[in-house]
Design goal:
Helix 1 runs antiparallel to helix 5 and helix 4 (about 110-120) runs parallel beside helix 6. This protein has helices spanning about 30-60, 70-75, 75-100, 110-120, 140-165, 170-190, 205-210; strands spanning about 15-20, 25. It is mainly α.
Length: about 210
């Protein structure tokens, strides 16, 4: 790998095309690269989630500032942090699948793992009785951003499958779909009711706005 990446720029993409693993060249305007780009962007947002989690953990341990919910500490931050690492690697594998259709980097076991994670986190949460606004702490807000990017990646992936079924595996789309659910539940899981409560949609807010006008 070191030899392959010893030179970063090649100038071969200056014509608006990208070389594939099989040696062919595909236009960068192809929807395949929209999916690749969304997956890459999503992975970067997960990386930022990890950074916010690490900072919050550091503050908890060294500054006596309670920034993590009790349920996250009971489950151990290391377990949640490790789940984020695994997710980043699986997203990278999906990128590999897109570049090399014969490669399988995500399978049903990974989807089941996400579902188990969702169920485990959900058991610690109060029932969801209303819509949640995407806000809260930096960590929670970043999880919501990652969720919205994940949804966009899913839409582009479904479009790609409709256009060219062999270009993306169904398991990859299922994984992305389940990951958006994981990110939603994770945002709730990382919300500390003692610090920042979940912000619910409130019809009264706009009613007051109308009355004020």
């Amino acid at each position: 790998m070191g030899n392959r990446l010893s030179k970063i720029y090649t100038r071969t993409g200056d014509d608006g095309s990208t070389g594939m693993a099989d040696g062919s060249r595909v236009s960068k305007a192809d929807n395949l690269f929209s999916v690749m780009g969304d997956i890459d962007e999503l992975n970067s947002h997960i990386g930022l989630v990890r950074a916010h989690l690490a900072q919050a953990t550091h503050n908890n341990e060294n500054a006596n500032q309670q920034q993590l919910p009790e349920r996250l500490q009971q489950q151990k931050e290391l377990d949640f942090a490790q789940a984020l690492v695994i997710i980043q690697h699986l997203l990278f594998n999906i990128g590999g699948e897109l570049a090399m259709p014969e490669y399988e980097g995500v399978n049903a076991t990974h989807i089941e793992w996400l579902e188990q994670q969702i169920d485990a986190m959900n058991t610690t949460l109060p029932p969801l009785k209303d819509f949640i606004l995407p806000t809260g702490s930096l960590l929670v807000s970043q999880l919501h951003i990652a969720r919205t990017v994940c949804r966009r990646a899913e839409r582009q992936a479904v479009l790609l499958q409709q256009q060219r079924p062999p270009a993306i595996r169904g398991t990859a789309i299922s994984f992305i779909n389940r990951l958006s659910d994981w990110l939603f539940v994770a945002a709730r899981f990382c919300t500390d009711p003692a610090q920042v409560s979940e912000v619910l949609w409130d019809s009264q807010v706009l009613q007051n706005f109308t009355n004020d006008k």
